[in-house]
Specification:
Strand content: 25-35%
Structural class: alpha/beta
Number of strands: 15
Distance between the termini: 48 Å
Largest sheet: 6 strands, mixed
Number of helices: 12
């Protein structure tokens, strides 16, 4: 009886704490609404990503446990997401449909209270933001196994949108079917990227099963939901959405399979203190130009994390370069390096300065 009483007492104490948490959340919501009215009156941006990051980092530093520090971001992401919804509707376009990894990335970054709107293509995501129908867009840009997603980079050549944030999503691929039995699998559907990321596993475990490319992992799951002889490579979330069973989990060839997504918006993000700047530029074709275009960054000790080239579609055999470096364009050394780079280039375009993903 003592153990039962002790358990009851502990549960009553937890209930009391939950009541206080709810009271505090509602008081926080009232303050957020007051902030929203001030922002409207002063014509300020209602969403400030650097403020979110400041909240996460401050609370993580204050945490003494036993509540896990890595869970603080998840909890407060939803609190902030719900709070922003009180200020103004947060509409975010993403490369759909629902249950794709772009959808999961959007939920991870913006929370469940945001209005997440699926789009059929990467250009459609850009268009939604450019025309003001969405505040932000989420698009994939590279995968740690398969490399850059060139279509996303190409879109920046004709767009004035800025990169506001980056999202790193650990991608785990699940083999899904109606029966959950590997011996029933006679055909496999998925998007070309997941098929490529699971190439070795498929060759070893289902070598004679035909692979069928489709537009998205969600479409693959949808097809398989009506075909008992087929399987889909998709997210675990897709299994719950289409009532599928897991045949095998985590079948990606590389254990650390991470996809990087970009959050695009109409304005430059504020300096956070731990930022990345992305540029695109086209250089004049002359001897030593590659050395000279990197020199402005090297002599200032600026760390370059990525450089990628893409063909210039308007001129044969000319290339556009994409470059990521540490720092914010408002910092003097970054600004000076970019100005010096312009002397060697036909054009330079700042795609954005934004907080590094944690």
């Amino acid at each position: 009886m003592t153990d039962v009483k002790t358990l009851d007492e502990l549960r009553r104490e937890i209930d009391g704490l939950d009541d206080r948490i709810l009271e505090i959340l509602n008081r926080r919501a009232e303050l957020v609404m007051q902030v929203g009215r001030i922002k409207t009156r002063e014509n300020r941006e209602f969403h400030v990503p650097s403020r979110e990051r400041e909240i996460y980092e401050r609370l993580a530093a204050l945490n003494k446990g036993p509540f896990p520090t890595e869970s603080i971001r998840s909890v407060f992401r939803e609190i902030i997401s719900a709070s922003l919804a009180l200020e103004a509707p947060m509409k975010v376009a993403f490369l759909g449909p629902k249950a794709t990894f772009s959808h999961l990335a959007a939920m991870q970054h913006f929370g469940l209270a945001a209005e997440l709107v699926p789009q059929k293509s990467i250009p459609a995501v850009f268009e939604e933001v450019e025309k003001g129908r969405a505040l932000y867009g989420v698009v994939p840009v590279e995968n740690s196994t398969e490399g850059v997603i060139s279509h996303t980079l190409d879109m920046f050549t004709g767009s004035d949108l800025k990169i506001n944030a980056e999202i790193l999503l650990e991608v785990s691929h699940f083999l899904l079917s109606r029966t959950g039995r590997i011996e029933d699998v006679k055909k496999i559907y998925s998007h070309p990227q997941p098929l490529a990321q699971c190439r070795r596993w498929l060759a070893e475990n289902l070598p004679n099963v035909p692979l069928v490319d489709v537009a998205s992992t969600t479409l693959a799951a949808q097809i398989v939901s009506e075909d008992y002889s087929a399987a889909a490579i998709a997210s675990e979330y897709a299994a719950s959405l289409y009532d599928l069973k897991v045949v095998r989990e985590r079948i990606e060839d590389q254990v650390n399979n991470v996809t990087r997504f970009l959050v695009i918006g109409s304005k430059m993000a504020e300096k956070s203190g731990d930022d990345r700047t992305s540029l695109m530029f086209s250089v004049k074709d002359e001897p030593g130009i590659l050395y000279r275009m990197l020199e402005p960054f090297a002599k200032r000790g600026l760390n370059l994390s990525k450089i990628e080239s893409r063909p210039n579609k308007s001129k044969a055999w000319e290339y556009i370069f994409f470059l990521d470096l540490a720092g914010h364009v408002s910092e003097p050394e970054v600004s000076e390096a970019v100005q010096e780079l312009k002397g060697y280039c036909q054009f330079v375009k700042i795609l954005g300065s934004y907080p590094k993903a944690k």
